[in-house]
Specification:
Layout (H helix, E strand, L loop, with lengths): L2 H12 L3 H13 L3 E2 L4 E5 L2 H15 L6 E4 L5 E7 L2 H10 L19 H12 E3 L8 E5 L2 H13 L5 E5 L2 E6 L2 H10 L3 H51 L7 H12 L5 H6 L7 H19 L8
Helix pairs in contact: 2-3, 2-5, 7-8, 8-11, 9-11
Length: 305
């Protein structure tokens, strides 16, 4: 089941009293495909939404609506509900205080604290949300610009940041931030889906953190290996030209440890000396070896250092 359908299913399970059914159906009708005095049309690709709409309409208006299937060229099947009976259309308009040619959110139509379930109806009518494993994106494809602006303002009132873009003749109110999507899902009654999204986000954040640590560790390993190889090159040069027996004992000891243990860190070398010293002390000795090797390369050293 898609994440959008999980949200729709959870919404359907939360619409459990008369006021919620009334407000949710209002949202579906107001944000549906066609709302005029001649015809009311609602269509959806989701069988879950189709069942919810038919159930809500039966509950509020005590009439059974039948949908007709319509297969698109891409293979998806729409469930289309059409109301052309003038008496029933008049009843819908009267019940929800609708005006011909005007789509506007009238909070006075709904019971107090019903905005969340009303917005859930809007989501059922024209909303979708991406799988959070892939992308954080929730949107409403609204039929009219003014209605899109009202929905955007409604979401703003609950602290949700959204934007509007015109796409194929529809005004799309979209939300990108994961926290705003979480707030929206909670607001429309999909609390379990909110928790699922939060869990996905935690997992993705942890995975990214692990990747960053691994990349950092790999970079540090490369750095240590490269440094060790340069130290070995210096030591071998000194050994070929002067011989390790010719250099100071403290330098000879770190040089031999390095030749025998190319993967040792500076701290490990310091810990394994006959008289242990700090990491910085080991680093200082390798700097002295490097200076000696550089002098040999430039022809400036004739003896032990």
């Amino acid at each position: 089941m898609s994440f959008s359908n999980k949200v729709r299913e959870e919404i359907g399970n939360t619409i459990n009293d008369k006021d919620k059914r009334f407000a949710c159906l209002y949202g579906i009708l107001l944000f549906g495909r066609t709302l005029s005095r001649e015809k009311i049309c609602f269509q959806t690709e989701s069988t879950i939404t189709a069942d919810i709409f038919a159930s809500l309409f039966r509950s509020v208006f005590h009439r059974d609506l039948r949908s007709r299937p319509h297969e698109r060229r891409n293979g998806t099947v729409l469930s289309i509900f059409e109301i052309t009976d003038r008496h029933l259309i008049d009843e819908v308009y009267s019940t929800y205080h609708l005006e011909a040619g005007i789509r506007t959110i009238d909070c006075n139509v709904m019971a107090t604290n019903s905005l969340g379930v009303f917005t859930a109806g809007a989501f059922l009518a024209c909303g979708s949300v991406n799988d959070p494993n892939k992308e954080y994106h929730l949107e409403f494809a609204v039929p009219e610009e003014s209605l899109a602006g009202e929905l955007m303002a409604l979401l703003h009132d609950i602290g949700v940041t959204s934007k509007i873009v015109l796409r194929r003749g529809q005004y799309v109110v979209y939300i990108k931030g994961s926290e705003s999507i979480e707030d929206t899902l909670t607001f429309i009654g999909a609390g379990q889906c909110t928790l699922e999204l939060m869990n996905v986000k935690i997992y993705k954040d942890m995975r990214n953190k692990v990747n960053r640590i691994a990349n950092c560790d790999n970079a540090n390993i490369d750095k240590v290996v490269n440094a060790a190889m340069k130290q070995i090159d210096d030591i071998l040069l000194i050994d070929r030209t002067l011989g390790l027996d010719a250099i100071d004992e403290d330098l000879r000891e770190v040089a031999q440890l390095r030749l025998e243990n190319s993967g040792m860190s500076l701290q490990e070398i310091g810990d394994n000396l006959s008289e242990p010293i700090s990491r910085s002390g080991v680093n200082h000795r390798f700097k002295r070896l490097k200076k000696l090797a550089d002098e040999i390369r430039s022809g400036g050293s004739d003896g032990a250092k």
